[in-house]
């Protein structure tokens, strides 16, 4: 249940890694509005939108450790309506965040048996954005391929010491208490794994007889073949590899409307009213205070992470492109936000084409908008003359710019609902 492949890549930038680990730990394991099992299930829903088995496997294991009901792992049809109702904004935020409206917020918050509180919804939205953006990083750096059958990941480089989830932050400001907790969790994981497997196997056996005669919905029928009926239901056969509890079969059970994906944001003259202008609603002036008020301290952690990625050294990258580091990073950040319809009035967008070569732009757009289409060859092909750490830096910019874009749209919609 650890993030070794991710932290190995982020370990090239240890101060950022420390900030990332603190934020992730707070979101998933510290006091907050949402129950712990629901947090991991929301992460599963978010990762499934991009078919990211690496993150789904991780959170299935942690969901069960948190006491989650194994029946929920059969898919969205088997979870409480309150959680299932989150599916719509999960889908929109993952692919076309500009479509989210205050009506989506109102629908979740309206008085009913399954209504969300504002604090719960903010926690859920931050989790969704975090996992969508992390899926981009996972695919962008090849971590997903390392998890697959035969591990076809081509990214062999790793930071000194082959750091793991807990060790990667040692000496870089991560609290000793956090390290102790994570070390204990990793030591316990092997002992827990057998009992978790037994629980899943028991659910398989109990439901096998009942479900054989039940007609599967049309969107569950694909997946026949390897894994048979279980795979078609999203109940993949139990794997042999430690740590991979759920499996390779079919993530479709965790999402609805799988064909809904990214579309280019309309930039025609008649659609200018749709453009999100940062001058009207920004993270610094609006989003930070709202999220911090409704979910204590998360705003400070997110803000630190945004500032940390902005402060990463990139002089070598910028020098190769013939510009100042701040200019180069801003070009990447604004290009990503532009793909989501977010505009800065004080920026000349002609600069993007000057700063970013075509292959780099193709890579950034793929990792940002449809990361599941990324392959290791794409990582190798762009910027052949650049260091591995510099390519990881680009992926960190993608992660944070994408996350902030989703948060801006969601928090603006929440603000409009509150007003």
TrEMBL record:
One of its GO terms (cellular component) is nucleus. Its main location: cytoplasm. SUPFAM superfamilies: AhpD-like. One of its GO terms (biological process) is cellular response to leucine starvation. It catalyses: a hydroperoxide + L-cysteinyl-[protein] = S-hydroxy-L-cysteinyl-[protein] + an alcohol. GO terms for molecular function: L-leucine binding; oxidoreductase activity, acting on peroxide as acceptor. Keywords: Cytoplasm, Oxidoreductase. It is found in: Cytoplasm. It comes from the Eukaryota. Pfam families: PA26 (PF04636). Residues 209-240 are annotated as: Disordered. InterPro entries: AhpD-like (IPR029032), Sestrin (IPR006730). Transmembrane segments: none annotated. The keyword Metal-binding does not apply. PANTHER family: P53 REGULATED PA26 NUCLEAR PROTEIN SESTRIN, SESTRIN 3. This is SESN3 protein. It comes from Asarcornis scutulata. The lineage of its organism: Eukaryota, Metazoa, Chordata, Craniata, Vertebrata. The gene is Sesn3_0.
